Every structure is written in structure tokens, then in C-alpha cells.
């Protein structure tokens, strides 16, 4: 489904029994977080809180909190289909005759739908407030007990490069300071932070707009690790095969998704900072209070009867773990363009995106695993990976038991572990300095004689296929009963 409006999503999810309307009164301070946390943990539905204490605007949470809903929000039956679609584009078959070239025409025609379109009207401007507005009107959540206040947790922040005019859409939390100002929590490596740096060098304010509740595919695109100066609207258009419609803002020279539920328009002054945080973050820990830029709101627009879209982050698994899985699958084909030896990657949710990266490779020469490790530390946001483990292509890195068993069976710590120092995620509280720390790479591949391994590598103990088939035929007649799982921890 090519969703353009969050209200369409709510209607469809309800028909599919993937949404639960919460009709009893709940408090946006802490209560919605705890209800949402329990729903995500147990694989529950999206939640629409219709009676939020002190407000007449409903709150939507856990929209992306299952693989089924995540794929639906991205306009596909599953992530594998998206991955295959991207593979088709990044590795097209070069035509050798006109009949093969003709087959490429439908692919090329698809490109017309990925570029954004400026429209003159948008439902996000059904109500326009250039004065007398306040953020206190909206049911913004306080998520965790030690949070510094209320935070907008699912904002699509839109800025433009002051020199080139190229648009960036990113997702950076906003702490509400008062009815007209918020913090702008962007880290130094992000696209909007670069725009702000340029604006400060020019001694200019940076205009910004915040879209809350755009089409879900746009919200996802804002989280994606795209290269600088590549418009996130292109990714959103590609994923759903439908143009992103944008409408010009009222008070700033920016465009926003036309069917957003709520839009905040404003600016960030150069060199103005204010203490922001602490905040219970996706790492499962509170990020500390630090100075960040201040967003001054000049106008608020919204749909009539808007829905306030929020997410809750914290100790995994939470909704952002599913979003991270989408990024893992969508960007794997692009990663293979520069590292074709990679068979698969996996970012376990317990690693909160940057603490652990598992990689399987088609090992072709001595030292190949270490080459891949160092290459990954030089690849976009994978530079933040604190621990990288590389195994052979026959290892299922998505199976924790197999991965841990085979990786630990294949390493000699002194020989196979390398350390380096470089950028780490700003939220890594264990690094000795903010944003700078050490990283570890583990070569857990089978070692070759050319790598100095002179012993014989043992074969894996496996039953023959013949015996497996014989036992398969006899299995139902054995009547063996199982009372528990087969893990020593069960």
C-alpha cells in the first residue's frame, strides 16, 4: 500500500487487526511509555491512545514495531522483496541485444516516481497558526523518569545546505523547553549538523521545519544512513514507487511533506546553546545533559483533528530495533557494491546499532577478514561499529547459537583480534572521550596455512544426508515427547 497519510494507515491497520485503540485515559507522562514498552516486548499491535490526559489529540505509538507492519509501512510485503528490488538496480544485467534493452524500459520508467513533487496545497496546512501557538497544545511524551522533560521523539527535521540549497531530512529528538522553543539534538556527524556548521561560519541563522506524522515511509527515510546531499525524498519515492508531495512552508523557505499531521517551522541561531537532556535513549541508558542548539518556532500548522505520532526508545527490543533491521537489509546491496566479498551482515538488536556488527564473507585470500574489518570502519555510519566479527559465508549470522559457537571455535584471541581508535557514536557512554574511542575487530574465519596456521582444521560433525532421510521417515512413529526447549539456559 502506498500510504500518503497517517490516517489511512490507522484505518488499514485496524482492519488488519494490527492496531489497538486504547479508550481508557492514560497519562502522556510515563504511562504511554510503559504501555508501549510492554506491547513491543510481547509483539503487540500499534497503539492509538484516544483519551490522553489533558489533551484532545490522540497519540500513535509502535507503528513500526513488527516485521509485518514495518514492511507494510515501506510499501512491500517483506524486506527481502525490497532487498531484491535494490539488487536489481545496483547490479543490472547489461543488455547485449535490443530485446534485452527493451526489458530495461519498465525499470527506467519507475524512476519518474522517485523525484519529489511540489504541490500548492497540503493537509498539513489545514490549520495555520502564525501567532498565539504553543507546543502545550500537543500530547508530547515524557518517556522515562529521569528525562529532563517532554521530548518530541519521532520528528522529521528538514534543513537545507546554506551554500548549495540541497535538502536534508533527519531524525533528531527535540526537548520541549517552552511553548515556542525546543532543543535540537543533532550529533556532529549528521547532515543537518553540517548545515548548521556552515550557517554558523556564515554567521547566519539556519531555517528548519519539523514534520510530525508524515507518511511512514518518509519517517523511515529520515532515519536512513544516506550519503550527505542525497535527498531522503528520493529513497522514500523509490521504496513506495510514488512521488513524495511537498508543500512550501508558511514562514521559512523550506518544503515539508504535504500530508504531515503537524509541522513546526522556525530557525536556529548561530552559537546559541542550551542544556538539553538527560534522555532515556535507544542504548537503554540515559544520555547525559549537554549543550545543544535551540530551535525557535515561528509557526505551527497541522491537519484538522491531527494524530500525534511518537516512538519510545529504551532498553532493546524497542520499535527502533525493527527500523534498524530495515536499514540492515535495504543497504546491504549498496554495501556489496564496494565490498562484493560480503555475503551478509547482521546488527543484533542487543548491540543497539553501533556496538556489534556481524559479517559473513566469501574469503578469497590471506588476511581477507581483516581487510573487510578495516574497510567497514571506513564506510559511512558503519565507522561507529565498536565490535566487528567476521566469519565465513557458510555461517548463519542470524542464528545466535551457530554464530557464537562457530565464531568462538575459530579464534585465537592474540592472533585474531585487532584494535584501533577512531570515531564512535556520540551516545557511547563507555568511550573515554565523547565521540572518540577504541574499536575491536575479530577475524573468526577458518585460518589458512598462508596465514601461518600449520595445524589441520577439523571438519564439522554432521550427520549424513542418507541417515537424516531415514530418520525423517521414522520420526513420527517414535512418539518422542518434548517438555522444554533444548537450551542449557531453559
Describe the structure.
- The protein has two domains: 6-309, Pnp Oxidase, Chain A; 339-451, UbiD C-terminal domain-like (3-Layer(aba) Sandwich), CATH 3.40.1670.
- It is α+β, with helices and mostly antiparallel strands.
- Strand 15 (279-280) and strand 16 (286-287) form a beta hairpin.
- It has 14 helices and 23 strands.
- Strands 5, 7, 8, 10, 11, 14 and 17 form a seven-stranded antiparallel sheet that branches.
- Helix content is 28%, strand content 23%.
- The longest helix has 20 residues, at 319-338.
- The mean pLDDT is 91.
- The chain has helices spanning 6-15, 31-41, 67-73, 79-90, 98-103, 105-110, 191-201, 216-223, 232-240, 319-338, 368-376, 400-408, 413-416, 465-478; strands spanning 19-22, 46-49, 59-61, 117-119, 127-129, 151-152, 155-160, 167-170, 174-175, 181-183, 206-212, 245-248, 255-257, 262-276, 279-280, 286-287, 290-302, 308-309, 342-346, 356-361, 387-392, 417-423, 436-443.
Largest sheet: 7 strands, antiparallel
Indicate the overall shape: globular
- Identify the CATH homologous superfamily of the largest domain: Electron Transport, Fmn-binding Protein, Chain A
| Share in helix | 25-40%
Tally of distinct domains: 2
Compute the average pLDDT.
Answer: 91
What CATH calls the topology of the largest domain is Pnp Oxidase, Chain A
Which terms would index this structure?
490 residues; alpha+beta; Pnp Oxidase, Chain A; UbiD C-terminal domain-like; seven-stranded antiparallel beta sheet; five-stranded mixed beta sheet; 23 strands
Amino acid at each position: 500500500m502506498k500510504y500518503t497519510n497517517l490516517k489511512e494507515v490507522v484505518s488499514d491497520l485496524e482492519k488488519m487487526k494490527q492496531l489497538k485503540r486504547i479508550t481508557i485515559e492514560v497519562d502522556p507522562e510515563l504511562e504511554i511509555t510503559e504501555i508501549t514498552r510492554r506491547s513491543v516486548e510481547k509483539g503487540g499491535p500499534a497503539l492509538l491512545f484516544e483519551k490522553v490526559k489533558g489533551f484532545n489529540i490522540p497519540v500513535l505509538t509502535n507503528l513500526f514495531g513488527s516485521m509485518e507492519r514495518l514492511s507494510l509501512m515501506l510499501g512491500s510485503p517483506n524486506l527481502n522483496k525490497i532487498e531484491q528490488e535494490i539488487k536489481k538496480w545496483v547490479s543490472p544485467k547489461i543488455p547485449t541485444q535490443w530485446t534485452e534493452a527493451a526489458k530495461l524500459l519498465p525499470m527506467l520508467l519507475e524512476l519518474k516516481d522517485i523525484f519529489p513533487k511540489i504541490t500548492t496545497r497540503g493537509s498539513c496546512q489545514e490549520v495555520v497558526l502564525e501567532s498565539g501557538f504553543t507546543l502545550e497544545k500537543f500530547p508530547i511524551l515524557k518517556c522515562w523518569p529521569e528525562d529532563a522533560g517532554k521530548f518530541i521523539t519521532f520528528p522529521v527535521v528538514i534543513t537545507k545546505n546554506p551554500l548549495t540549497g540541497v535538502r536534508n531530512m533527519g531524525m533528531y529528538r527535540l526537548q520541549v523547553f517552552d511553548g515556542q522553543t525546543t532543543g535540537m539534538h543533532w550529533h556532529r556527524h549528521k547532515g543537518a549538523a553540517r548545515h548548521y556548521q556552515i550557517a554558523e561560519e556564515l554567521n547566519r541563522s539556519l531555517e528548519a521545519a519539523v514534520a510530525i506524522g508524515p507518511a511512514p515511509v518518509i519517517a523511515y527515510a529520515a532515519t536512513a544512513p544516506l550519503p550527505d546531499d542525497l535527498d531522503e525524498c528520493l529513497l522514500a519515492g523509490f521504496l513506495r514507487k510514488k512521488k513524495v508531495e511537498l508543500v512550501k512552508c508558511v514562514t521559512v523557505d523550506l518544503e515539508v511533506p504535504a500530508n504531515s499531521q503537524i509541522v513546526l517551522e522556525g530557525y536556529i541561531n548561530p552559537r546559541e546553546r542550551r542544556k538539553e537532556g538527560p534522555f532515556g535513549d535507544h542504548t537503554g541508558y540515559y544520555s547525559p545533559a549537554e549543550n545543544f542548539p535551540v530551535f525557535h518556532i515561528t509557526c505551527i500548522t497541522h491537519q484538522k483533528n491531527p494524530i500525534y505520532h511518537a516512538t519510545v526508545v529504551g532498553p532493546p527490543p524497542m520499535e527502533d530495533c525493527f527500523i534498524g533491521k530495515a536499514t540492515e537489509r535495504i543497504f546491504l546491496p549498496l554495501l556489496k557494491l564496494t565490498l562484493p566479498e560480503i555475503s551478509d551482515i547482521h546488527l543484533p538488536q542487543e548491540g543497539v546499532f553501533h556496538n556489534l556488527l556481524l559479517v559473513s564473507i566469501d574469503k578469497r585470500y590471506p588476511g581477507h577478514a581483516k581487510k573487510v574489518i578495516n574497510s567497514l570502519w571506513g564506510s559511512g555510519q558503519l565507522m561507529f561499529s565498536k565490535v566487528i566479527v567476521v566469519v565465513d559465508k557458510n555461517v548463519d549470522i542470524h542464528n545466535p547459537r551457530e554464530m557464537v559457537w562457530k565464531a568462538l571455535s575459530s579464534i585465537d584471541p592474540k592472533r585474531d583480534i585487532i584494535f584501533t581508535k577512531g570515531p564512535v557514536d556520540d551516545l557511547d557512554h563507555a568511550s573515554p572521550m565523547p565521540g572518540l574511542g577504541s574499536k575491536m575487530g575479530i577475524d573468526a574465519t577458518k585460518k589458512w596455512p598462508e596465514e601461518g596456521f600449520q595445524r589441520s582444521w577439523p571438519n564439522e560433525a554432521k550427520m549424513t544426508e542418507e541417515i537424516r532421510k531415514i530418520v525423517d521417515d521414522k520420526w513420527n512413529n517414535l512418539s518422542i515427547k518434548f517438555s522444554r526447549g533444548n537450551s542449557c539456559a531453559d
